[in-house]
Structures are given as C-alpha cells and as structure tokens.
Amino acid sequence: MKFRLSYFVIISSILLFAYFYSQNSIVTSSVVFTAIPFALPLALAAMVGVMCERTGIVNIGIEGTMLVSAFTAFFLGAILKNITAGLFIGIMTGVLVGLLLSVMTITWKMDQIIAGVIINIMAAGITSFLYRQNFRIPSTFAPIDLPILGDIPVVGPIISDHGPITYLGIIFIFGLWVALYKTPWGLRSRSVGEHPSSADTAGVSVVRLRYLNVTIAGAVGGLAGSYLALEAVGIFERGFTAGKGFTALAIMIFGRWNPLGAFAAALFFGLSQAVTNQLMIDEVVQIPQQFVTMLPYILTILILAISAGKVRPPAAEGIPYEKEKV
Amino acid sequence: MTNLLDVERLSKRFGSVLANQEISLSVKPGEIVALLGENGAGKSTLVKAVIGLVKPDSGTIRVKGKELPYGDTAGAIARGIGMVHQHFQLVPVMSVTENLILGDEPTKFGLIQMQKARRETAELSKRYGLAIDPDAIIEDLPVGMAQRVEILKALRRDVSLLILDEPTAVLTPQETDELLEVLRNLASKGVGILFITHKLREVMAIADRVVVLRNGKLVGVTSPKESSESQLAQMMVGREVVLHVEKGPGNPTGAALEVRELEVLDDRRLEAVRGISLQVNAGEILGIAGVEGNGQRELVEAICGMRNRRKGKVLVAGKEVPNLKPHEVHAAGVAHIPEDRERHGLVATYSISDNLVLNRFDQEPYAKGWIRDLDAVARNGDELVRRYDIRTPNASAPASSLSGGNKQKTVVARELSQNLPVVVASQPTRGVDVGSEILSLSDRVAVLYGGKIVATFDSKLANRDEIGRLMAGSEGSRS
Fold first, then answer.
1. Which of B53, B78, B104 sits opposite A323 (nearest CB)?
2. CA B261, CA B277: separation in Å to the nearest integer?
3. Which end of chain B is more exposed for a tag (fewer CB within 10 A), N or C?
4. ipTM of this predicted complex?
5. Any chain A CB within 8 A of the CB of B196?
6. For A35-71, what is each residue's pLDDT tens digit?
7. Interchain CB contact of B367 with A (< 8 Å)
C-alpha cells in the first residue's frame, strides 16, 4: 500500500491514545473531549473552503465571514435575549457575506484573493466600530447528553456532552462528503471546479452552481462564527476569531479538499492544542503562554510545507469563467 | 419531414471582426452536412451559437421547427443536439463514466447510481462499436480514446443532431477512417450530422451536402457529386488553389540539421525519445509522421533547446548547438514553429508587431543598445501583416484578437521572415491546410512510433495506408 501521511497520523494517534488511556483514563478522556471544541470551528471553516474551492472559487474571506457572523449572532442574541434567534441571524449573516463574495468573484469577476481581503478588512472594521461592552447573552447552548452513544465505554464520554451546534456541524461534514462524492450536485460542483467548460457544455450552469455553493458555504461560515460566540465561548471580543479562518485553509489543503480529510486534519489540530493545554496545566512543561498560542500557526506552516507539491488543487480555482472562450 | 436544424440569417460580431454574417443553413435527419472553411472562416462560431455557447447578435435558430433562445445550452441539449468539441470538453481527473453522466446523472434517492451508469457506459460503447474502459481516467487516455468519450457523451443523450468540430485533427488516418465509418453508421440510423472540417478528403468521402464559409460569409452550398475537390478548395479560399503543393524535388546540398543518438524524457520522466538519429539536408523537407504521444513533441522540444537532451547531440551546419538554451539554438539558425502556438508561439496580450519580433527584439534594427526602436518594430509588423496576409485591423492589435489561423500565420511570419537555415515546424498545417498532407509536402517521411524512427520513406514511393499502419505500431514492410 502506498504510504500516506494521513493514515500514519490516524494510526499513531490511536496508538498514543490507547497508551495514555491505559496510564490515566480520566485525564486522557478529558483531553480528547476538549480537542473537539478546538477542532470544530476549524473543521467548519475548512468546509467553507472545500465548498468554494471545489467549484473553483478561492475564498480567503472565511475569517471575516466567521468574525462578522459571530458578531451579529452574539449581539442580536443578547439584544433579543434569545440565542436560537442569534444562531439564525449568525447563519443569515454568513449567507449575506457569501452572496457578497459571489457577486464580487462570479458576476464582477474580481480577483478572488482581493475579494477575500475586502471581506476580511470590512469584517474587522465593522465589528470593531460597532462593538459595545456590557452585552451578555442569556446563556450558551447547553451540552446534550447523547442517548445510547454516550454509554459506549471509552468513546462515549468523549463524544457525548457537546453542544447542539457541534453535533449539527459534524452531521453537516459527513453529509457534505456524501453530497460531494455521491450526488449529482457533487459531481457537477467538482467538474465546475476542475473544468468548467465541460460542465457548461453538458448543460450545467457554472454561474448558478458557483453562486449556490459560495452562498451555502457562507451559511456554514456563519454557523462556525455563531458556534464560537454562542456555544464555545459565550462572549464576543474584537478580533475574536484569531486567525481560525486562515488556519482552516491549511486544514483544507492538508485534507486534500475532501470534507472527511479536512475534518481529520482539524481533529489533529484540536488534539495538539488540547494536549499542549493539558501539559501546561499539569506543569509538565514550562512554556511561555505566547508560544502555546503560536502552536496552530507553527503547525500550519509545517503542514503546508509537507503538503507542498504533493496535493493538487481543483484545476479551475481562482479563474473566472468566460463562457465565450470555450 | 421537418428539418432537424434551421439557422436563418445568423450574425455574430467579436469586437471589430464579423465572425458570422447572415448565415443560413439546415440539416435533415440522416443527412451528413459538412461545414467547410479555412480556419477563421466562422465555422466554430456558428456551431457554438447553435449549441448556445455563443450568443448571436441576430438571426434565428430552430430545432425541429421550434425556435431556440440564444445562449440556451441546456435547451439545445434537451432537444437532441450533441456536440463533439475541438478542445475536448472532458474533466481530466474524472473517469469515463463520470464524464458521460455529467449533467444527466441516473439517481436513486438523490444518490448517483454509479454501478448502473458504469453498465450503461459499457453497453453504449458496445452498441456503437467504440470500445472504452468505463473506469479509465480521462487524463490517462490517448487523444483518440478521449475523442471516443466525447462522441459517446453525445450519443448517450439520444442525439438527433450530432455536431463535430474538427474531429479528425488529432487522429491517425486509420482512426479517421474509423470515425467516418461511425458517422455513416449513425446517419443511417437517422441522426443528422454537422461536420466541421477543412479537410477536403473527408468531405468528399462522407458528406451529403457541403456548406462553405469564407471570412464569416456563406459562399455556397453544394455536394461532393456536384463539385470536385479543387472547386471546393476554390470556394473555401476564394481563389485558385493548388491542392497538391507544386514543389519540385528537393535539391539536397549537405546536412543542415543533424540529430545523433538523441534520448529525451517526457514530463512524467519516462523515456519519450529513444535514441533517434536523423539528418535533414539543406533544400530538403523531412516529414515526421506519428500519432500524438510517440515522442515527436519531445523530439522537437529537444532540438529547439526547450527540453533537456539526456543523451545525444544536435548539430546545425556541422556545429553542435547548446542544450536547454532556446535563444542560442535560434541564434544558431533554427526557426521553430511550435505545436502549441498559444503557449509557445505567442504572447497573447502583446501586440502583433511585438509578437513578430519576439525572437529578435533585442537585436538590430529593432533595438539600439538598450533602447527598443519601436518605429522599426511597427514597420516590420505592418510589412509582415501585409506579406503574410494576417487578417487584422492593424498590427498594433493584441495577438489575442486574432483567429486561430491568423495566429498561426503570425508565428510563421516571424519564423520564416528571417531566412534561417533550419525550420522546425510542429503540426504546421493544423488549421491552415487545404488538402496538403505530409506526403505532398515532404521529400522524405520518417515514421515515429514509441520514441523510435520505425521507417523512413521517400515520399514519392510511400503510400498513405502503410504509413498509417506504421504510425499505429503494426509492422509494415520497411523500405
């Protein structure tokens, strides 16, 4: 069998887990448990990238999408005193940002990198300008005790007791995988990202499909932002997303533009962060806090360096489709 | 019986070029109509308008009597129009089956039925005698195979009108004959066929009716029974045409180009040229015949310094030319007309004048020291545009505004206007020939197969069928 880095990572993670579990089951469970909230926003943000790039649109505005959605979800959730309404508003905000990116990149055929930068700068500006202190949401989304699944030994305590957005997000990731590889929508989306004129000549509307996917991806970005504000943290601060939308692009590449690959890569990120945190709590290692915060970025650089030249992005990404140049 | 297709007074303008001017045309069920014209005559634009890939400015398109809106690709497909494009419309990373079902996938509960699709692909290829592996990935297939996928793609949708845009450009003579047989077979089942070509032999062999375009205008409708090859050629070009290029025998006077024991790798780092030696004498044309992918591209690139020569030498007038230095190879006297003029022949965004001095812009008289002499460049541009009949409003227009044939003329003008001792031309007649084949042009023909020269003929003694067999890899009697 061909050596693949992802298999290596998965197998060694399982072996390490088994070893630590045998040493100290409670701490090991809790570390892996906390890896999930670290991983989820990265995974969802990576799905935004997967959906856009698979249809040929580069989206570096994920960070901005998450930031502005977290903002509206939090403040409207606080004002309306209703976090479910906040979640809905956060998702709709993502849809609007997705539409904005679509108009810029698909209709106006702007440079896609610049369009993404515009979204990031606008999001940072608007959320800082409108930010007010002393707002509070009534509560965060409460954890759900999974029936049956939660009772499985070893695995149960890790996968149970997460919030509703976490489960919604994980279901979405698996659903996206099925949709991308097993449905007409997925085949068409991938063909539009690889060779749009083939899709066009087969009667698939490149423009419509790109609009649809970038907009749905925006909703997912909104979900990721809402998750941070309403389920994971329960507050909003300026620059709240802290580069997660960019890290997600590395995760997407590491996962080879495959939803499950990206999910695994995000879990790896989350786990590395959870392990580092635990080591600091136990004072096993004495690392300055600043270095710990650097961890995701260092991992990003490492992963991109390892993947360089080995992965093949969708061939048509970043190129606006010109119908008459078939 | 209603016509499958009626095009009436269709016009389309690209910038200042009228690509189609009030063109009318019709196709009946079971009829093979050849759309004949030089490159840039407007054939591709016309059929793209029919299939909805180009929005015409005026005119009507009716399919089976019903008008088709402009730019409605899905509508055209739904009404039974299928098209085999010149540039294959296949997703390279996907399988044959995936490409066939794209846009019309068999589903159950919203999921694609891949097994069923694979079975249908196998059945379809069997029914039409076009053998193909349903699971093969397109980018691994040779060109002839990929074309089969294109045709199957159209057939799968129960086409009543099949449009083929220059389908034989990439095929060997045998593959071409096979394709013509497939088309005849389809027509006998009632499918209407609109066949774009500039090759007269194919028109004579297969067409029921011939529609000739020139400079975007319809110049005539005729049939192979009513017209001879030379009459058709005259309609196409607008003047008397010499079909079999009148060329005296070569007058060889010593080696101009020598290739010795050349070995070259391809992009996948596999051996593409396996020890080729050849000699081209001054005053002689050596034709290299071969199916795409048998080393001819690598051979040409290695000679011109664009690809590493792993072993062997290239000599021009007895002097070895440096490896991997295209500019110095050119300076040593080798003109190069590349196969892919868009990528290696022209800079699309530069003006035609600039493209015409691309290999000598830094030399007298086009530059004086560090400074370019733009007047000299413009004068040269105007002169070559006139001399080589490059059809453009003016020489300062960007090269991207030219049609395919005129792009080719621009490259040819640049490379030939210097009178260099060696000319290496890769597929030079793609898109501009009038019945001129390798045999009528060359003094000698070398056949390349699997990276080796398998035979060399004197072109007067060679025959087309035997060369075709050798190109396809079968052992022929070697002379």
1. B53
2. 5
3. N
4. 0.88
5. no
6. 999 999 999 999 999 999 999 999 999 999 999 999 9
7. no
- Whether residue A15 is contained in a domain is answered as no
Which two structure tokens, joined as six digits, stand for A140? 């965060």
Bond before A164 cis per omega within 30 degrees: no
Domain count along chain A: 1
Angle (CA) A123-A125-A129 rounded to 5° is 120
* C-alpha angle A165-A56-B151 in degrees, rounded to nearest 5: 125
**B48, A315: Cβ pair inside 8 Å?**
no
Q: B108 — contact with chain A (CB < 8 Å)?
A: no
- pTM of the complete model: 0.75
DSSP state of B244: S
Asked if residue A312 has pLDDT above 90, the reply is no
Q: What is the pLDDT of residues B337-355, one digit of tens each?
A: 988 777 888 998 999 999 9
Domain with CATH 3.40.50.300 in chain B: 5-237, 249-333+420-479
Residue A122 lies in a domain: yes
Condensed to tens digits (0 to 9), the pLDDT of residues B118-157 reads 999 999 988 877 788 999 999 888 777 888 898 888 888 8
Architecture of the domain defined by B5-237 = 3-Layer(aba) Sandwich (3.40)
Q: Quick one: B249-333+420-479 is in which CATH superfamily?
A: P-loop containing nucleotide triphosphate hydrolases (3.40.50.300)
- Is A8 inside any structural domain? no
CATH of the domain at A101: 1.10.3470.10
Tell me the one-letter amino acid at B281: N
User: Domain limits at A67?
Assistant: 25-141+162-307
Interface membership of B48 toward A (CB under 8 Å): yes
Backbone φ and ψ for B241, nearest 5 degrees, come out as -125, 140
Q: Are strands B209-214 and B32-36 parallel, antiparallel or unpaired?
A: parallel
Please name the helix (run of DSSP H) or strand (run of DSSP E) that holds residue B454, with its range, or none. strand B452-458
Tokens at B375, concatenated: 């007047």
Evaluate whether residue A10 is within a structural domain: no
- Encoded tokens for B255: 């080696």
> Is residue B103 less than 8 Å (CB to CB) from chain A?
yes
Choose among B56, B9, B5: nearest CA to B28.
B5
